[in-house]
Design a protein that fits this description.
With 124 residues, this protein is mostly beta strands. It has strands spanning 3-7, 10-13, 18-25, 34-39, 46-52, 57-60, 68-72, 78-83, 92-98, 113-114, 118-123. 0% of the residues lie in helices and 48% in strands. The strands form two sheets. Strands 2, 4, 5, 6, 9, 10 and 11 form a seven-stranded mixed β-sheet that branches. Strands 1-3-8-7 form a four-stranded antiparallel β-sheet, with no helix packed on it.
């Protein structure tokens, strides 16, 4: 059974930083994508960042480029999302997701496994 567990969310003021973690059990991040998505009430889940091809390729949504960094550990069981210069519009529930096959990183359908989410709240 594959389980993904996020942690690291919280409340910060604009300009602050948070580091989200996603630990996988029963799964090793491999050549397929592992990504972070976020969702606010009434909106669709959107792709924020992803690592694909075993970490050789990194992708970011334009809204977070230069502020967020996705990385993974050498054992490929933990993925982090370092979030700097946070803005109120970054407020959302953040989810990590892992794929068991190829696909476009930004599509929810690419991913087979999802965590329960961790809340990030940025105040102005």
């Amino acid at each position: 059974q594959v389980l993904l567990m996020e942690s690291g969310g919280g409340s910060v003021q604009a300009g602050g930083s948070l580091r989200l973690s996603c630990v996988a059990s029963g799964y090793t991040y491999s050549r397929f994508c592992v990504g972070w998505f976020r969702q606010t009430p009434g909106k669709e889940r959107e792709g924020v960042a992803a690592l694909c091809l075993g970490g050789a390729s990194r992708y970011y949504d334009d809204s977070v480029k230069g502020r967020f960094t996705i990385s993974q550990d050498n054992a490929k069981t933990t993925v982090w999302l370092q979030m700097n210069s946070l803005k109120p519009e970054d407020t959302a529930m953040y989810y990590c997701a892992a794929a068991a096959g190829p696909g476009y990183w930004k599509l929810e359908g690419t991913y087979n496994y999802w965590g329960q989410g961790t809340q990030v709240t940025v105040s102005s």
